[in-house]
Amino acid sequence: MQPYGDDFECVAGADCLKDFYDLFDAALDWLAHGLVAASWWQIVLYTLVTTHITIASVTIYLHRHQAHRAMDLHAIPSHFFRLWLWLGTGQVTKEWVSVHRKHHAKCETAEDPHSPQTRGIKTVFWTGAELYRAETKNKETLAKFGHGTPNDWVERNVYTRYSWQGVGLMLIINLALFGVAGLAVWAVQMAWIPVTAAGIINGIGHYWGYRNFEAPDASTNISPWGIMIGGEELHNNHHTYPTSAKFSVKPYEFDIGWVYIRAMEKVGLATVKKVPPKLQLGTIQPVADEKTLEALIAHRYEVMAGFARELRRAGKAEIEMLKAKKPMCLCCAPPTAGCIMMMTRCRQRPNRNLPRLELSTLCWTKWSRCAKSFAKCG
Q1: What is the pLDDT of residue 17?
Q2: Cα dihedral sign for 254, 255, 261, 263?
Q3: Do 145 and 210 have their domain in common?
Q4: Rounded alpha-carbon distances, angstroms, from residue 32 to 177, 195, 303, 319
Q5: Domain assignment present for 179
Q6: How far apart (Å, rounded) are the C-alpha atoms in residues 31 and 45?
Q7: d(CA 8, CA 359)
Q8: Band of the pLDDT at 24, cuts 50, 70, 90?
Q9: What gap in Å lies between CA 136 and CA 111, rounded to an integer?
Q10: Does 282 fall in a domain?
């Protein structure tokens, strides 16, 4: 007599099939909602928070601490930033620091790894990350500009040796938390630095914006409020005072990275070495003394910027004055006034039906007639 019959086999098979369906249903539920079943706004908030931590890690640890030595960091935030950068970007500290230091040393020249002035704004904006990766393969750059970066066991055997595994681990974490939506979160996290740092800061930050100082390069401030990119928006200020831990200079400017640094300094996790010098005006002296010369050297960019503003203002006022004059004939007007008036009219009211070459010829013809009239008067 058999202890088990066909009925038992049927029941066992049904149980196995039920377990399979339960497992499949659980897998679908995990793919749809993840382990935390977060709502859409919670996923968006998580994405914004993690990308902002990445930006803070880049601007505080890689940029201000490692590349420019503008501040010192305690071991706790230092190791946290290194771990987060490994997870969120896969960037190697020595490579990032080397490329950035070379950018400052060779700024706006053919040797600059990512200058829109030499490579074009489209190239740097759209392929800035590729330009960065290409320069990291340059052993000479790493040897010359990578000194002083971490070289401990963790850096050599984890962060550098397995750089891509960090971003792979971040993908697994996102998928576990949010299911399929975690893939989109990971894509945004991976694109954040290539777009904001390599594209916007390295590209637009040397092409468009306002300038507080006449620095010897094309750096600009993209926005007076440095929040989304951690204060890196104040790029002209940074290039003027590269060893400063604070990027905001004017009263209306805001550097959120500096807020975080000051908070860490309050609890003993950071030590600021340098900040931008503050301009103080004293009484006028007939003869410049030693302190006056020191102040002039320290604030040379501020002085140059003020001179440039005054020069532009004076030039604009002179042109407006010349344009306001209405002489009876060109022969009775000063040569500069007549020529400027003629060229201004040509520039302000061009014949849009003419090709550019013919338009330029027309302007030159009018200017030539103006010059001949002056010659006859003389």
Answers
A1: 77
A2: positive
A3: yes
A4: 11, 29, 60, 67
A5: yes
A6: 20
A7: 96
A8: confident
A9: 14
A10: no
Asked if residue 326 lies in contact with residue 337, where contact means CB atoms within 8 angstroms, the answer is: no
For residues 218 and 346, membership in a common domain is answered with: no
Type of residue numbered 222: I
Tokens found for residue 174: 């996102």
Q: What are phi and psi of 73, to 5 degrees?
A: -120, 140
How far apart CA 42 and CA 336 sit, in angstroms, is 66
Domain of 116 in residue numbering reads as 40-272
| 251 neighbors 224 (Cβ within 8 angstroms) | no
Q: What are phi and psi of 139, to 5 degrees?
A: -65, -35
8-state DSSP, 67? I
Give the per-residue pLDDT at 354: 43
CB within 8 Å of 66: residues ≥ 6 apart: 93, 96, 97, 148, 149
What are the helix (H) ranges across 179-275?
A: 181-193, 202-203, 235-240, 256-266
The answer to whether residues 81 and 123 belong to one domain is yes
| 119 and 131 Cβ atoms separated by less than 8 Å | yes
Query: By the 8 A CB rule, do 34 and 177 touch?
Result: yes
Q: Is 378 helix (H, G, I), strand (E, B) or coil?
A: coil
First vs last Cα of the chain: how many Å apart? 135
Contact indicator for 35, 176 with CB cutoff of 8 Å: yes
- For residues 213 and 305, the answer to whether their CB atoms sit within 8 Å is yes
- Is the torsion defined by CA of 175, 179, 180, 184 positive or negative? negative
Looking at residue 208, its amino acid is: W
Confidence at residue 281, expressed as pLDDT on a 0 to 100 scale: 66
Q: What is the pLDDT of residue 205?
A: 96
Taking residues 200-222, what's their average pLDDT?
A: 94
| CA 192 – CA 197 distance, rounded (Å) | 8
Q: Would residue 281 count as lying in a domain? A: no
Structure tokens at 289: 């003394």
In 10 A of CB 326, how many CB atoms? 7
- Please report, as a single letter, which amino acid is at residue 66: Q
Q: What gap in Å lies between CA 163 and CA 168, rounded to an integer? A: 9
- Which position has the token pair 């049904």? 14
The answer to whether residues 320 and 342 belong to one domain is no
Each residue of 117-131: pLDDT tens digit? 999 999 999 999 999
Q: For residue 82, give both structure tokens.
A: 């290194």
pLDDT of residue 245: 97
Instruction: Tell me the C-alpha distance between 330 and 343, whole Å.
Output: 13
What's the total number of domains in the chain? 4
